[in-house]
Amino acid sequence: MINLSKRLEKIASYIDKEDIVLDVGCDHALLDIYLSKKYSKVFYASDLRESALDMARANVKKYNANKVILKCGNGLEPLKECKDVNTIILSGMGYMSIINILKKIKNSNINKLVVQSNSNPEKVRKFILKNGFYISDESVVLDRNIYYIVTSYKRGKRKYNKFQKEIGMISGNDLDKYIEVEIKKCKVLLTVIPKNYIFKRLEIKRKIKYLNKKKNSIDKK
Q: What is the mean pLDDT of the chain?
């Protein structure tokens, strides 16, 4: 069995046997190979260019993962050929790349998303919640000294307040440390962002407030 990183392990934990998956931006396709072996079923994996899929092809051959089907295409384009897909994985990208890919998700047959953004996870969260999905589960995981937020969304509507949209429904053993690190980052930003950047500074101060609120709620448990 393939040894996944902690980040990929968490993503894999959100995939169920009944999910028919397209992993967009699959990189080396190790996640898809792992899942195809675990569930003994087809997993689709895509990337933007054929050259980007070369390592994925090598790994599919190396692990004899004949149930991993590689597709070349931009964003959700491969869905045209994979009409049975009901679940999308988006991980290892910046927030704008993820949002741009998901702009057409509202009119698709996708009922589940598993998302890990390398930047501004709150912006991705707000976009997805606004476009017909709710948070099924959400975790923070520490992998090679970097904290990642991994979220499972399902199609449907639930009400969230501003605090929940900003901080999410995060849980996990690494949550305390993650909050401490994020507060420190925000405080450093406030020392370097000019005072005339009023709205940016207010945004950061609001995030510190929400992070402290989350920390206090954990401490009371």
A: 94
